[in-house]
């Protein structure tokens, strides 16, 4: 159904009615397979409204959390995020976890390269300040929905010569014979800052989980130090407890 354009006082109800039309179309699955909304020109023609009215209706729906803007990529239908119950006792990778649950894992690489470690990285990895590390700063997504931000540091010597690191850091470590077998993880509640919120597509100040992981090889050497911010609305971390012996 098209919401027809009129002028003056009718503008606010018109914006609301365009918003309702868009919501109905989203609910009926019209954009479900594509996720990204058609461009402004096409959509304004489809709905028979001006681009100004459409822009206002879209801004309202972004505010309501029905749509989301991704810088340089367009306006997307905001899907309800996948929910994950993650046992705290198993040492798995993000890619494996998502695959097991039937979600498509993907990553947006924000920074990647060989660097000298920061003093925190050198301490956490128990390496000299002169030893090169691979630093991998990624946004991790499940079915295209941002789930976590991860900043991993791995001493270069654990990654095979010229080894291509694809989507999975653990797969690359496994290929180099250096898959971690044990990890110590610390979880802490935080409020996400503006930059984290923009990446995770949540409001600034939303609760998040700040997780530090140090992972070890079988011989006790430290292979990974990763700092992550997980969205708290997508993850339940579950630990099994037993009586002390
Ligand atoms: C998980 C780990 C992270 C590890 C990553 C490897 C937590 C809190 N973090 O996200 O430390 O680097 O898996 O995933 O579980 P990948 O093999 O898919 O790159």
Descriptive overview:
It is elongated, with a radius of gyration of 22 Å. It has helices at residues 11-27, 40-47, 51-64, 94-100, 119-125, 169-175, 194-200; strands spanning 67-70, 74-77, 84-87, 105-115, 133-142, 145-155, 182-191, 207-216, 222-231, 235-238. It folds into two domains: 8-77, Winged helix-like DNA-binding domain superfamily/Winged helix DNA-binding domain (Arc Repressor Mutant, subunit A, Orthogonal Bundle), CATH 1.10.10.10; 84-238, Chorismate lyase-like (Chorismate lyase, 3-Layer(aba) Sandwich), CATH 3.40.1410.10. It has seven helices and ten strands. It is of the alpha+beta class and 245 residues long. The chain binds 2-acetamido-2-deoxy-6-O-phosphono-alpha-D-glucopyranose (16G). The site of 2-acetamido-2-deoxy-6-O-phosphono-alpha-D-glucopyranose has 14 residues, from helix 4, strand 6, helix 6, strand 8 and strand 9.
CATH-defined superfamily of the largest domain: Chorismate lyase-like
- Which ions and ligands are bound to the chains? 2-acetamido-2-deoxy-6-O-phosphono-alpha-D-glucopyranose
Rg result: 22 Å
Spatial gap, N to C terminus? 68 Å
- The SSE string, one letter per element, is HHHEEEHEHEEHEHEEE
The largest β sheet comes out as: 6 strands, antiparallel
Output the strand order for the largest sheet.
Answer: 4-5-6-9-8-7
| CATH class division of the largest domain | Alpha Beta
The total number of structural domains is 2
CATH topology of the largest domain: Chorismate lyase
In round numbers, the mean pLDDT is: 88
User: Spans of 5+ residues with little confidence (pLDDT < 50)?
Assistant: 1-6
Keywords: DNA-binding, Transcription, Transcription regulation
GO biological process, one term: negative regulation of DNA-templated transcription
GO molecular function: DNA binding; DNA-binding transcription factor activity
Protein name: GntR family transcriptional regulator
